[in-house]
Specification:
By secondary structure, the chain is of the alpha/beta class. About 25% of the residues lie in helices and about 30% in strands. It is built from 3 helices and 7 strands. The strands form 2 sheets. The protein has a 5-stranded mixed sheet with strand order 4-2-5-6-7. It has a two-stranded parallel sheet with strand order 1-3. It is globular, with a radius of gyration of 14 Å. About 30% of the residues are buried.
């Protein structure tokens, strides 16, 4: 799949990641759901981002995130009311590369895009 992120959404995600440092931030990417969603040639073009609270226990938020189920359902309903769907999830890696960890890979939802932002010393860098 291909993820095409608008500059303003990239800036909003980088800003959220920097504010959350030294903890991980997390949120949703939403937009029109293409007919080939879930297949390799799918092109996902988010038109909105929705930051969500990282609800992982506070002692491990520096390397884990969890989306609150109720907040996720509320966001999904709000998107659906506007003809949009959840295309993916974003989160940050404080003081770590923008590469999925084994935990990230084990807990990823099928078909969704995953965007990871590396944050070094409080600045989103990758």
């Amino acid at each position: 799949m291909i993820l095409r992120l608008r500059q303003e959404d990239r800036a909003a995600i980088f800003s959220a990641a920097a504010r959350a440092f030294p903890e991980e931030c997390c949120g949703l990417l939403a937009g029109p759901v293409p007919s080939d969603f879930g297949s390799p040639p799918a092109v996902l073009v988010p038109t909105e981002t929705a930051p969500l609270e990282n609800t992982w226990e506070s002692s491990s938020r520096h390397n884990r995130f969890r989306l609150d189920g109720l907040a996720l359902v509320r966001a999904e309903r709000a998107f659906e009311a506007r003809g949009l769907g959840i295309l993916g999830v974003y989160h940050s890696h404080p003081s770590a590369p923008a590469w999925p960890s084994p935990f990230d890979l084990e807990n990823a939802w099928p078909s969704y895009a995953y965007l990871i932002v590396s944050v070094r010393e409080g600045s989103a860098v990758d």
